[in-house]
Structures are given as C-alpha cells and as structure tokens.
Write a structure and sequence with these properties.
alpha/beta; OB fold (Dihydrolipoamide Acetyltransferase, E2P); Trna Endonuclease, Chain: A, domain 1; 2 domains; five-stranded mixed beta barrel; 43% strand
C-alpha cells in the first residue's frame, strides 16, 4: 500500500479528542493533524516522537494535515487503523498469505451474521468453501518482540469473534487476521490484562474452529506491505 505524498516530518506535540494531533514540523510550523485512529494508541502516541504527516494543500479542508507515521524505539509505525483493510487484499492478490491463496474473487464489507459486515469474503477459484476474513489492526508492543491486541476494551471485537464462530459452525472457513503495523515483533498474544473478555473470546473462537493468523508489515515512509507470519500465543508465557 502506497502512503500519500508528500509526507512532512515533524514531532508530536500531543494527541487529543481521539482524532486530533498537534504537531511541530521541522520547518517550525505548527498545525493540527487528523488522526485516523479511534483507539487508545497506548505506547504509540508518544509526545515528542518523530512523526510524518501528509500535507493536503487543499484550503477547503478543515485540517491541513493527516498523521500517517510515528517513530517509537527506532521503529516506524503507521497510525491509521484502516490501512490493514487495504494492505490485506493486496497481499492476498500477490500470494503473500498462503493460508488465503487459491480463491478467485475478493469481496469487501459483505453483510453476514447479525447486522455485521465481514472485511473480506473470499470465494471461487480452486477452493470449495468460502472464507470469511475479519481484519484487526495491531499497534501495541509493551514487551520486546510481543505484539498485543487490543489496546483497550473492545466489545465490538468480541462480537466479531462470536460471528466468526457462527460461520465456522456452519461449515465455512472463518479467519481472524491480525495485522501488526510495525516490524519489531516476533510473537502475538491477546492483551488479557487490558481486556480479559476479549482474550477469553479469542480462545473460545479458536476452539470453535476460527483460524487465527497474524502477520507483520515492512514499513517505509512511502509504502506499507505485509511481510511475514508471527507466532500466536493464546496463553501468556
């Protein structure tokens, strides 16, 4: 996935009201950037950290900038939580995810379950069963090498796991795919201390036949691509 251009480097002054971030650019300008991340951004919204923002150049826009990247512990991290929904289809088409290969058609935001929409529905090709893929963005890293989700309580996330379990019970493929938008982790685990209900729901979903996948990303200031699979730990070490 290509990042918007041009990106301008600066430093994060503060992030507030969920969708706003004040930044100080390298040329001395200060401005407010849109932050496309409704989560807590625990460990990511670090005041004073290097950031990259997209300068729109459109006087009609309410905010002149959009926050795209932050650097924490020498690691580039995209902050936009909608990126994985663009990254994954590209990766599926390129054959980067072997577990999701062999399908002929990719549909997005398809209604299923009880008033839910699946991120990707894969059908056709040489595969006999349709595959329902729910995608979650992961930013959190509190221990070396360990990515975690969620970074705050997510009842909606637990609901998605229940819906996927229903798909698996009907005999179709159900996949929960975690996309770690950083490249400094080797393992993934649910953040049970932050949301114990989600951690239990994830274990129940796995027992019900939901396939769990986790991939990290290779990130530059111009592009984000899915890279490699990470080990998944449902029980803390």
């Amino acid at each position: 996935m290509r990042l918007p251009a041009p990106l301008v480097k600066g430093r994060l002054k503060k992030r507030y009201k969920r969708f706003l971030a004040d930044v100080i650019l390298e040329d001395g300008r200060e401005g407010t950037a849109h932050c496309a991340n409704p989560g807590s951004m625990l460990g990511v919204a670090v005041e004073g950290a290097p950031v990259w923002v997209h300068e729109h150049g459109d006087p009609k826009r309410k905010l002149a900038f959009s926050w795209e990247l932050v650097e924490v512990d020498r690691t580039l991290i995209p902050v936009n939580t909608t990126n994985p929904n663009k990254i994954v289809p590209e990766a599926v088409e390129r054959g980067v995810i072997p577990e999701l290969s062999g399908y002929g058609d990719i549909a997005r935001e398809v209604k299923y379950g009880q008033s839910s929409r699946i991120d990707l529905l894969l059908t056709g090709g040489r595969r006999k069963k349709p595959c329902y893929v729910e995608i979650k963005n992961v930013h959190l890293r509190r221990r070396p090498g360990l990515a975690e989700f969620p970074d705050s309580v997510t009842k909606r996330g637990a609901k998605h796991l229940e819906e996927l379990s229903g798909v698996a019970a009907q005999g179709d493929r159900a996949v929960m795919l975690f996309v770690v938008q950083r490249g400094d982790c080797a393992r993934f685990a649910p953040a049970a201390d932050l949301d114990p209900a989600y951690a239990e729901a994830l274990k129940r979903a796995a027992s019900a036949g939901v396939e769990l996948l986790c991939y990290d990303c290779e990130i530059t200031t111009s592009e984000i691509v899915l890279r490699k699979a990470l080990e998944i730990e449902l029980e803390p070490r």
